[in-house]
Give the backbone structure.
Amino acid sequence: MKERIPTAASEAQLEQLRKEAELNGRVDRPGIRPSGSPFPQATAENGYYGLPLLKPPVWTWEVPLYFFVGGAGGAAAVIGFTARIAGASPKLVRDARWVAAAAANLSTPLLIADLGRPKRFLNMLRIFKPQSPMSVGAWIVAAFGGASTATLIAPPVLADITAAGSAALGLGMATYTGVLIGATAIPVWSRHAHLLPAHFGASALASAASTLELMGNDQRALNRLAMGAAAFETYMGFNIERHREDLASEPLRHGHSGRLIRIGGTLSGPLPLALRLIGGRSKRVRRVAAFASLAGSLITRFAWVAAGKASAKDPRVPLSLRGDGSRSGEPVRQREEKSDPARQQ
Amino acid sequence: MAITGFLTDSTLCIGCKACEVACKEWNEVPSDGFVFTALSYDNTAALGHSTWRHVKFVEREPHAGHGGNSPSHVTWEFSSDVCKHCENAGCLEACPTGSIVRTEFGGVYVQPDVCNGCGYCVVTCPFGVVDRRPDDGRAFKCTFCYDRQKFGEQPACAKACPTSSILFGDLEQLQQLADQRIAKLHGEGMTDAKLYDARDTSVGGTHAMFVIRGDERAYNLPPNPEVPTVHLRKAWTSAAVAAGVIALTTLAAFAMERRS
């Protein structure tokens, strides 16, 4: 605290305050406004004092990491099986099967770790519920884990059969996570429910092809696959940037999640696409592109979960949902970001 | 057993929060700490894992007349919020363990001995009701006092309500009563009174209905809540198309490899 010297002006100010208090029973000065005021009102535009209407996802880092690992493993199983029937090099087939099994066996502990009651993970397999993407996913993960592990340890003839199953389930692994978050009440996710499975699928394919490249496989097929996936990811990035007026998509362009989406999008879309198109003949350039795709794919999954958390905090979208599925356009004053932490329940 | 419901009437609520206390006491819901929100007299803020009844304090511009307020003071509406117990419940559809079930009374109930805390119900509730309790790991929300209903008792909140703002009973009877109540309020000049039960949405109606005044959005009640299963078709279609394209592209890429 700074030491001050009383002056005529400061004392007159205090006298003035006392007179005002005596006269009115209160003093109308900015000093009486509590910090953070004026507070948002409960109105049709603000909702209930601008408080969140939805609950944010409780998922921590394990879930987006699983989206990445599980997707890459699933796509690797597809590549491994296709390479096998196309008669590609045995090393590629072996590597792809190894990636699939490793990813599957990493996915399960990640998913269990994120449960509130990890010991009860087997409850996921109590029932099968087609209308719950989480239930369908749990069965896909369990079956994929079995099939991909069996492919690695079974005798060759049997391994080819389990590899086929593993590839079919791998297609599910690569895409179902998009359904999982798309079919929710979180506006930014459900708004992209028709794109997320394809987005995650392309991301998974790119990371599987990139991983196999980095393991020393130099098939042009891998380069082509990575290029195709990067092309789709570039389209996805443009698609996100294009819908500027859409309130539900705001977390994809603003704040922490917006930054992550852009970094992840650049790393998995235009950057590897350009690298592979221009310098695709150089092994080193392809390696750089592979690293970019992997990092981009990983960041993209974290970005989408972060966007979901930001989206749940914004009551404007659920409040503006109209019966015909369209939204009332007018953006409403948003609750201030840096409000009292005590109020953010 | 009859299908039961709640009718919560904000025009009768006096904001005493007896329902919040009764709910906490009967269900032994843990404390959620003391937080000063500075939002009217509401320091609970929202429903959650440790708040299954929540009285909203909707402050309005000074408005003489209803409620006996002077023209120089804000007007209040109080509304005791609760899990809506949807006809098409997003949480119930999404629960992968079968922990969330519909009871014989029509309520949506989380079985605490089955829930493994996957958190999927949290993001599939269009009303932001169910939440995972961090220190426990499982998801919690209003049980509709299933335990009490089994003994023919009404839920704790309804029993503790001193003004009959929270009515509990047969769902169909309550729906008729709600219509009568709205007509009566309109007749008395409260022309902005209306019933919120999300009947015309994909949620298909709620077992907890609310008589409110003015715009439902001021109560953080979504005008058109969507049960997330409406997004399943387009999401799985996208997944199927993507899976097909991935399979064919991979096949084509290796076929080209073989030829070259």
Q: What stands out?
A: The mean pLDDT of chain B is 93.
